[in-house]
Amino acid sequence: MKICRTKAELRETVKGFRANTETIGLVPTMGYLHEGHMTLVRTAKAQTARVITTIFVNPTQFGDPSDLNAYPRDEARDFAMLEAEGVDVVFAPAVEEMYDPSAQTMVETEKLANMLMGALRPDHYKGVCTIVAKLFNIAQADKAFFGEKDYQQLLVIKTMVRDLDIPVEAIGVPTVREIDGLAMSSRNVRLSPEDRQAALILNKALAYGDYEVADGREAAELESDIRAFIAREPRATVQSVDVRDATSLEVPTGKVTAPVVILLAATFGDVLLIDQRVCDPS
Ligand code: PAF
What we know:
Layout: E1 2-4, H1 7-19, E2 24-29, H2 35-47, E3 50-55, H3 65-70, H4 75-84, E4 89-91, H5 95-98, H6 110-113, H7 117-120, H8 124-139, E5 143-147, H9 151-163, E6 169-173, H10 193-198, H11 201-214, H12 219-231, E7 236-245, E8 260-268, E9 271-279
Parallel strand pairs: 1-4, 2-3, 2-5, 3-4, 5-6
Antiparallel strand pairs: 7-8, 8-9
Helix pairs in contact: 8-9, 11-12
Bound molecules: pantoate.
The site of pantoate (PAF) has 10 residues, from strand 2 and helix 8.
């Protein structure tokens, strides 16, 4: 497995793959890898000849510097996991390599990036789009793989790819869960044992919402019912519960008749967790 620290090294490596007409799959991550990331890697390996994984804790997508500093990091462990999985290249640059101090260009999908989680975390998706666009430009991949857990992120990235004619296919990969249903996340290690147990309420709330969608409820009613369901867990602080059209993320009117996505965000202690589920009423 080749480890590239600079853009020039990665570009050179990619040139070699391209010269051999090998297809390239890109798996962008912020490291501290878990089974969810490994599923992205395996999906990429199944679909492309070469796999590049990036590890970069991207400062421009963190509003709160303490959240950025608290983000878990373990490069040696990440490298070992990727090597064992047969990844071809890891791109793990320093912040100075990715962001010139005089940089003045950011990428924003105006509407999608500023609703829902984007309204709670201003500039978050602008930071995501900017780093992902840069990685797309450097890695020149045919396909790029993202978890469906951050559903809004996936739609934002797909929209950016479409709007900017970036020659890559952005592919969503279903959320990987722990055996008890908690969606895998690098943030889970920061949960106390009590909060780890309490966080199971999120997946239970999604199952409850799915049942209610099948039962023909209206979106607004669904949101308040799910909010009340999560509030039964005293350790959870609900940040947001949204039921939106699964393609446009617009608010559905009246009874839910087309697929919707239920998007949840809640804090347990100081750890913000998100989860989602697409529910089809038909
Ligand atoms: O989902 C993530 O881990 C990050 O938002 C991403 C896509 C790697 C960009 O920094």
